[in-house]
Design brief:
Layout (H helix, E strand, L loop, with lengths): L2 E6 L4 H4 L4 H8 E2 L7 E7 L5 E6 L5 E2 L15 E7 L4 E5 L2 E5 L4 E4 L6 E5 L8 E7 L7 E3 L5 E5 L8 E7 L10 E7 L5 E2 L4 E2 L3 E8 L7 E7 L2 E7 L3 E5 L4 E6 L4 E8 L8 E2 L7
Parallel strand pairs: 1-3
Antiparallel strand pairs: 2-21, 3-4, 4-11, 5-10, 6-9, 6-11, 7-8, 7-10, 9-12, 13-14, 14-15, 15-23, 16-22, 17-24, 18-21, 18-23, 19-20, 19-22
Length: about 280
């Protein structure tokens, strides 16, 4: 079987206060998502959110069902979002082929039985970053290019957070049940993302950091606004953000990250902002 999965359990803010570095990383940090010829998945008990990576090599790579789902096929009761962070590739959904270039996205609705990943060139394989959530109804499968994204430019050079937010799989672009995904690109010379920070107890998130230059890193901040902690992130690594936690980062270089979220509503602006001087 080429699809593997591990489980991460939900934790309370009180429990998290006592974690040391190793415990925080074990609970929240996802160090490796891409291995040739493998689909690697992490199942979080926060909103039953699945984070994963598919790296097809010489042969096409199917998305197989996994035991925690207790389902005949992976998308029997789920929806799926994919963003390609590697070389050109294809995703075949019940026989229909969708081409995905670098930083292009694909939404797959509930009920699709067969999903197969492939790279166009094994020497430059596709790296399909995956998010999946439970779904209550079926929406159409659709590819979303960079040109079709809902784009917002925020921040500024003077605050080191000049960035472009590409909303790819969100309800301003296409219908979904609860999954939302997008990509934030920091401009050269900028380091901070999602600052001022916020929480939203109605939704959880997962951040996936990529385009982190060799030898550089991103410091991801998490925790309640008055009890913040940090996790150092390398290229192609992800981190789970509980609903009660801030989610922000600062890099030793500029970088790109994908945000995926699920929960109570689809309002992108649903945020409880934290004033910078109030962070602890």
């Amino acid at each position: 079987m080429s699809t593997s999965i591990e489980t991460r359990y939900a934790s309370s803010p009180l429990e998290a206060k006592s974690w040391d570095t190793a415990q925080a990383r074990e609970a929240l940090h996802i160090p490796s998502l891409f291995e040739p010829g493998q689909v690697k998945l992490v199942y979080s008990h926060y909103d039953r959110f699945i984070t994963g990576g598919a790296m097809p090599a010489q042969q096409p790579l199917p998305l197989e069902t996994v035991d925690p789902l207790k389902a005949e096929y992976f998308l029997e009761r789920r929806e799926l979002g994919i963003i390609n962070t590697g070389g050109a590739g294809t995703v075949t959904v019940d026989g229909e082929v969708f081409e995905l270039d670098f930083k292009e996205a694909l939404y797959i609705g509930r009920g699709k039985k067969e999903v197969v990943f492939a790279s166009k060139n094994a020497a430059s394989p596709a790296l399909f970053y995956i998010n999946s959530t439970p779904a209550h109804m079926t929406y159409p499968t659709r590819r979303v290019t960079r040109k079709e994204a809902d784009v917002v430019v925020l921040g500024g050079q003077e605050t080191s957070n000049h960035r472009t937010i590409n909303k790819l799989l969100v309800n301003s672009v296409l219908p979904t049940c609860q999954l939302q995904m997008g990509m934030t690109e920091l401009k050269p010379g900028n380091t901070w993302n999602t600052m001022p920070a916020h929480t939203h107890d109605r939704r959880m998130e997962v951040y996936f950091y990529f385009e982190v230059p060799q030898g550089q890193a991103v410091c991801h901040f998490w925790g309640q606004p008055q009890e913040t902690r940090h996790i150092w992130m390398q290229n192609n690594q992800a981190v789970i953000s509980p609903p009660w936690s801030i989610h922000s980062g600062a890099g030793t270089s500029n970088y790109t990250f994908i945000w995926g979220m699920a929960g109570e509503n689809l309002d992108y602006g649903d945020m409880d902002h934290c004033a910078i001087p109030d962070l602890r």
